[in-house]
Amino acid sequence: MRHKVRWWDSLSMLQRWTALVIVFLACLPAILAVYDHDDDLQVPHTEVEHWANKIGTHLFYLSNLFAQYDEIRDNFRGAKVQRNDGLQLVKEMAEDVTNMMKYKIEAVKRIMNVAEEASLDQFTDDDEVDYYSAKKLNEYYSEDDKKRPGQLKEGYRELKLVPNSHFDGIPVNENFSSVHVPTNVYDKAPDVLRAIRWSGRLDRTFKSNYELDPTLSWQYFGSSSGFLRQYPATKWVLDERDPDLYDARLRSWYIEAANSAKDMVILLDVSGSMTGLNREIAKHVVLNILETLNENDFVNVFNFTNDTKELVPCFNNTLVQANLENIGEFKKALSQGETRDIANFTLALTTAFDLLHRKVQYNKSGQGSQCNQAIMLVTDGAPNQFEEIFAKYNWPHLQVRVFTYLIGRQEAAVRNLKWMACANKGYFVHVTTLAEVREQVLKYIPVMARPMVMYQTNHPHIWTGVYADIADPKQTDWLWEVRERKRQMDRTNNYRKLQKIAENRPIPLPDPSMIHDEAQVEKFLKYGNFTLTQTEIARIEAEKERKGRRQRMRRDASSFTLGNGGDAPSDGDALIEETLNQTGLRRSKRDVCFMIPKRIHDYDLKKRFDRMFREMDRLEEFYEHNRMGRREAPGLRDGYRLMTSVSIPVFDRRKTMNITERVLVNESIWIMRTREVRSANLLGVAGTDVPIREIEKLVPPYKLGVNGYSFMVNRNGYILYHPDLRPVHEEANAEVLRKSRDKRKWFQDILKPNYNSVDFAEVELFDKDEDLRSNDSELLALTMGRDYNNKLRRDLIEQRAVETLQDVKVHLDGMKRVVTRGQWYYTQKVDDTPFSLGIALPEKYGRYKVFGQIELSRAIQDPRSNRAMDHFSSGNWTLHPEWVYCEYKYDDGHHNLTPEQLMTDFLSRAQKPHWKWRSTRTRPLPEPSLSHTTSAKSRMSGGLENERRENYYCDKDLIQSLLFDARATNVYFANKKMFEDSINGDRNPMEMYMALLFSSTKRHITGITTSFVATRSGLTRWFDIPKHNSSEDPKIQEGLPHFMQVHNRAIDEVWYKRAVDYYEQDPLAYVYSVPFDAATQDPAEVLVVATRAIFIEENNSKKAPAAVVGVTIKHSQFVEYFINETSKCPSYPSRDNGCKDGKTCSSPHLDCYLLDDNGFIIASDKKDSTGKFFGTIEGTIMESLVQSEVYKRVRILDYQAVCLDSDMEPSSSSILYTPVQMIKWSFNWIVGNIFWLMVKTHLYTLWDPNEAWAYTHVERDAQYPVVNDPSPDYPDHKDIYSDPSSFPDDSEPYEDYDNVEKSVAFPSLELAYINKTKPRPCDKEVNLYILQNNKLKQDGVYKPVKGKLSNCHANGCGRPFSVQKVKSTNLILVAVNNQCKCESRNVDIEPAEVDYNETMHCNRLLLSHFRRRPQNCYNYHPEETEIKLCGGAGSLGLPSLTMLISLVLAHMCYTLKLHS
């Protein structure tokens, strides 16, 4: 028997420990594998890496194949790379702008000279005044009118108006000018008629100017008597329910030319006597004075009683620049305060003189205008003349003018106030009603102009800052108020519907508990439905926007007369007329078409009507595009026609004038006496507009290249134009934006409050993160990063030629993406203007450009060469819609050509003999002449018509570059068979495999719909991948525009810019993107866009972008491929068990996302996440990615933002407790209607035609327009009162809230009230994100970034995640374990307001920015003291009671006449 060997016992202690160590080491790998396996089960890092590499490889070869990247790149190899000399480039551009500006100046000088000569003509008052009133043109009685069916309205004139693309498609007549008379000016007053008569001579000058310079825009003469003569003649488009607020004398081009810069102190009496109507009149006097100031003026407003205090406490002991922001501060404060005590005039006047004369504190310190000085005294009476104060501070030099405004009907107070004005070179006016406020305030302007008029020989021309060509920017507050009323009306109607539902009529409530759910009730009150999803809500908002725009289009369409010579679709017009004639129906001459047949039994007739209404839609779209200063006309920026103007004052050359005055004789008899007095009268201002679009034409973007841009800055540091200037607040719904041809043209029609005073430091966001620790840190903190002391800004203001490199932050795509890069800046002065021109070029690729052209002349000489149009033979193509390749300078039959048609026309002409390029846009100005020269007359002779037809411009370099690009990109195929033959015949094995796999028989796997390429010359061409069944594409069925037709702006498209910028990080990468609102769209319509840049390189040192190729992919199939790939397990036989359940993205415990380089979700298994920022879904994970340096956080500040303040009004039930308030409202309503009645019926002419005033609308307290509502519902204001469709079918128009019946369980009536808001300018900040590719690499290879959120839950669990770069893309694959329910914070990219405390707000407003004063200053003439005209008392007219009775009787008669 064998015995067991107890070998363990036989081992020594040392041997035992050695054996244990050996066993442990042998088992260690298995133990580690178990732990590693557990971790991989939570987040499979290896699998994530495998998926990312496979997806990247697949997408790269697929995109390269369909985009035909290699072939297009090879075709560009014939081009060269040249250095782009920024200094020389900006110098040449500045010279072109200078030449163009000089032509405008000379044109205005000719108008000025002829106007001054014409004013000397002698006329008798009996002479008939013949002119075209802009408000009384082409208006006809309706066909239903019993007396004059279809005839011209009484008092109106007929004038042929033809739409002209040069004037934004507005119907004009180039043979005449038209006259606009403001509402507050009596058009039959003798002085107005005299000025209209002699200014008629300007028509010939206007016309000859236009013939000499076809780039001229509107020319005009604004008279000091109030009217505006404008060329060419056009109809002033308005509605009788719209207030005509336009007054040329309040526009910047008039005020800046009529007056030199000024320092002004306004003293407002708020003593106890200034109550009631006097208080309102005084407030509006101050408001109108503030409206006459411009950015070159400085001002402060003081309230005075027994003490004198600044109206705005921030503006203590100083004058502030009269920009829109500071003026807004005054207007806000003006609505507050109360009257009290007794006025201390001595203290008030002393304070004003001290402020203006203080050597250290103000004027002598170098701030302010340092030119004219004025004190504006607004009071209801002064106890004495305070002669000792004027003797101390103002005599004998009279440096400060004193203007006095007597408020009310106190005749006894006239003497003292008039003496103050007359003794200090000022003017006195007596304001008795609100209606005359504006006209009386404007009388100070000619007085300030007297020194300039008396010098006669000097006619300084001025250039304004940028402004929008609209009737009156002050309408914006009223438009906002209309918007709020519309919101309130809709909410009230929904409340009434909810009440009926709650009462089970007509439909019972689906779930009674809904009535107590605040969220459900709020949803119903806003949208009228309980069960809406977020996607449905987004679509409702889009439909509201479309409906509002359609209503505005229908209204606008009825404002014009159709003609054969216009831009309107003539075939559509003829079709409508034919249908109307055949059916026996007629229409009004002023309406396009308004009848809708309710019943049509004839099928053929029904088809004809259907076709006719389709043409109506075309007409409505046409007329919408051609509204004055609005929508899709050339040169629009965000829907408004931005411009600058040059203007020159027009002087009366006579040194004396006759005046007729009333004189008291024998202390009992008043007689009229005429006498001659010394005078210096300003006749008005002549000017012309220079649209910003015309300036931008002289700085062609193709010369600057992708991500390069130009800008202009004036002497105040304000932007004239810049790509980041955003004058209106864009709040268009995403779905509307998506279907627009140009995203910038869908907007809310409300200007921002400070749109024309945006500083250069507020649009150029210098990367100053490190500089915040420097000596300027306190200053930069005070200005929230605005670097007003930046050297580049100072050089621009001082008009120096500089070259400098700056690090900047550039936001893209609606401030949702950001790029940081270096930029070279080059600047140059524009001679004879206050402007400096600058260009910015990217540091790494902007200093070189691709040079490749096809010389047309050689192609003509060589008979073997192809014709130019042969290069456009394959695929579809379009040109940049805003670039000028060739254009006719006159609108003679070429206005309806598309850019592509125009190019085809010119290319056909260019290949014929005797072709001339005429590529010089501007030429140096010849010897100036103020009269009509012989050469000008010869040009206007018989050969003028031929010259008009041949007067064109072609950019030779751009066109020949376009031809080169067209040849290089001529790679697409005309039919499906050619496409299949090409991919099947590819020589590359990998591409042959891809072509075989994704041929037309298996095309559905790829989802690729379009291949496209865009080039440096603005050419975009594309090829739609053939389909077996065209019904696969929903766009064909719905008639939606093609993606490439919408995104046809080549180097200006976001996908083009991003592809070029990303090339520096990964030359092989395609840049992927989806719409931000993809989750709210129809999934079948969402496209993934993939783009890759083509660079031309020489000597490994010079490179420049030539083009960008790309493809569009159906997002649904892209996601399907992503899910399929991430649901597969790699081939690891030893670890295959449980793969499907734990290691793929199909696992319920693993969430997988494809994110782009800015953190937006491109694909995931959650459809509602597409396009959203990752931080809104997984905020905590996003923060971890930032801490892991996967993404870099970049802070962006928006200095052009607008915020909304709540403006809740008390409940209507409070009226029961305040009957006095009801009486006050009733009185205000009666008075307002009386004044409006005066305007509409001209009853004011009954007592004194020469002193008739019209009611002017009360100005709003705060001048802050613009919007910040996440779901705007901007209406046409007439819809509120006249559109029955705006009410629910089962409801009556708006009822008072108190009449709404209440049920027991019904929500509170307070829920029916909206949160009324008021907009104001503010600063906002947002954190955006950039992917850091270099942080994802290890030894030059992309490796997974492993992370874990530890202890993010109460039970101590965590959330591991893995991040892997997807090769050859801008994407990362993120896999997150979701088993631990961690609390996730929300990290969004919505801008939030910067919270300033009161001290910071004041300090920022008071901060002195470097600026340069205007060169010309006219504030003194030695002979001015001879002028004794300094105002007089106003006429009180008929007694108030008699006037009131007359008005009431007239109104009753007028009402009866209407009803009869």
Account of the protein in words:
The chain is of the alpha+beta class and 1460 residues long. The protein is built from 44 helices and 46 strands. Strands 4, 5, 6, 15, 16, 17, 18 and 21 form an eight-stranded antiparallel beta sheet that branches. Strands 8, 9, 10, 11, 12, 13 and 14 form a seven-stranded mixed beta sheet that branches. A six-stranded antiparallel beta sheet has the order 23-22-27-26-25-24. Strand 9 and strand 10 form a beta hairpin. Helix 20 packs antiparallel against helix 21. The relative contact order is 0.13.
Summarize the structure.
With 1460 residues, the protein is an alpha+beta fold. Helices cover 34% and strands 19% of the residues. It is built from 44 helices and 46 strands.
Structural class: alpha+beta
Mean pLDDT: 76
Rg value: 37 Å
| Helix run count | 44
Low-confidence stretches: 1-5, 30-41, 359-365, 548-607, 618-638, 731-748, 770-777, 928-945, 998-1004, 1028-1038, 1209-1218, 1244-1304, ...
The biggest beta sheet reads:
8 strands, antiparallel
Question: How many runs of DSSP E, i.e. beta strands?
Answer: 46
The percentage of residues in β strands lies in: 15-25%
Distance between the termini: 139 Å
Shape: globular
Map the helices and strands.
Blueprint: H1 7-10, H2 13-42, H3 45-67, H4 69-75, E1 80-83, H5 86-118, E2 162-164, E3 170-173, E4 178-180, H6 190-199, H7 202-212, E5 219-223, E6 228-231, E7 233-234, H8 252-258, E8 262-269, H9 276-291, E9 298-304, E10 308-310, E11 320-321, H10 324-334, H11 345-357, E12 372-379, H12 387-393, E13 400-407, H13 414-422, E14 427-431, H14 437-441, H15 444-448, H16 450-455, E15 462-463, E16 467-468, H17 475-502, H18 518-527, H19 534-557, H20 570-583, H21 603-625, E17 636-637, E18 640-651, E19 656-665, E20 669-678, E21 682-691, H22 692-697, E22 709-713, E23 719-721, H23 734-739, H24 760-763, E24 765-766, H25 777-782, H26 791-797, E25 802-812, E26 817-829, E27 836-842, E28 848-851, H27 856-861, E29 876-879, E30 886-888, H28 899-910, H29 934-939, H30 944-950, E31 952-954, H31 956-968, H32 976-984, H33 989-997, E32 1008-1015, E33 1019-1024, H34 1034-1038, H35 1043-1046, H36 1054-1062, E34 1071-1073, E35 1087-1098, E36 1102-1114, H37 1115-1126, H38 1139-1142, E37 1150-1155, E38 1161-1164, H39 1174-1177, H40 1179-1187, E39 1191-1206, H41 1219-1241, ...
Parallel strand pairs: 8-9, 8-12, 12-13, 13-14
Antiparallel strand pairs: 1-28, 2-3, 3-7, 4-6, 5-6, 5-21, 9-10, 9-11, 15-18, 16-18, 17-18, 18-21, 19-20, 22-23, 22-27, 24-25, 25-26, 26-27, 29-33, 30-31, 32-33, 32-36, 34-35, 35-36, 37-38, 37-45, 39-40, 40-46, 41-42, 43-44, 44-45
Helix pairs in contact: 5-7, 17-18, 19-21, 20-21
